[in-house]
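User: My collaborator and I are trying to settle a disagreement about how two of our proteins should look. Neither of us wants to argue from intuition anymore, so we agreed to look at predicted structures for both before our next call. Could you fold the first one, then the second, and keep them clearly separated?

Assistant: That sounds like a sensible way to settle it. I'll keep them separate. The first protein:
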Amino acid sequence: MKSWVRKLGKKGMKLCLVLPLIFSMNWMGYAMPHTEPGPISMPELERYYSDSELQTLIREIAEAAHQAIEVAAGEAARVATLAGLEREATAQVKAKESLLRMIELEGTLVEERAAFRRKTIKVSLLTFLGGFAVGLVGMAMTTGGR
């Protein structure tokens, strides 16, 4: 018997314990008495409507349904309009931010161009004066050496 238990292992032993419980649970379900369903409708509460009453009732229900549909359509249109306005407002805010950023960058660019021009003029003037000085010194050396 020990070899049989070893072959089953822990999972097999659990299975041997659980299977009989499962089968006993199913048998208990069959032993329960059947219950009868209650009556679907009670004759004393039933009322018979004439054709004109039914048509009036159907008309009233249809009118109420049409009104509910109109209200729902109005609400849906209002929500869609508000969502569109919100998207448009967000787009306008982003456009204004982009425009302000572009104006700021344009101002920075104008300032940098002016600074570049000033530096270019200074370098050109220094180069000219330096060349003029070198030319004067060179002339003085050539004429002074005679």
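The second protein, kept apart from the first:
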Amino acid sequence: MAIYPQIKICGLTVPEEAAACAAMGADAIGLIFHPPSPRNLELEQAVRIAAALPSQVVAVGVFVNPDWAFLCEAIDRCSLGVVQLHGNEPPEMANRVQAELRVKVLKALFTAKAPYITSADRYALGAYLVECGKGPLPGGNAEAWDWSAAADFARAHTIALAGGLDPDNVARAIRAALPAAVDASSGLESEPGHKALRKVEQFIAAVHSTAGYYKKPGMKPQLIF
């Protein structure tokens, strides 16, 4: 069986587009709960998107320094399989989500701003999302970066690689960092919040083409989603 990174398509705002991405082979769909983002979802909208996903595709809630009560409600109503904490959340919040809510946590760490990848041991989680973090928003800034800067971290931790990924560069990014998963949003859009499904198809095909990078003995990406 071919081995390649898992695929998260983030920033969906339309149930039909989310279902189409899932049918093409996405492993996870990201639902953004952050009002400054053009991809922000009202809870009712997120519930409809999550309901459109097949059971094998994970709904990931993306939060930035969330209110605890809202976080709990979103997890419950959207049946979130993973909580992505994309702000300055302390380790205590990540631990509380896992211990009390029984949901996996994917903590975003950055190479160009805090929380830096060097703070990973403070969180002691199963997986991290890694991107550069130079843009004005916590994520989704469509900025490509030197993905090889995540390579050493990826050898010691399970990571989802993000930041400026699109169909033309994702294979190069995977070769540079060998992540367990890749996460794309802006680079697959026709406009903010709406995916160009042809780009999604091309992106997934490009990821699948990288199986040869993982053929070294003992090399097998860990499952995040």
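Some points you might bring to the call about the second protein. The mean pLDDT is 93. Residues 6-213 form a domain with the TIM Barrel fold (CATH 3.20.20.70).
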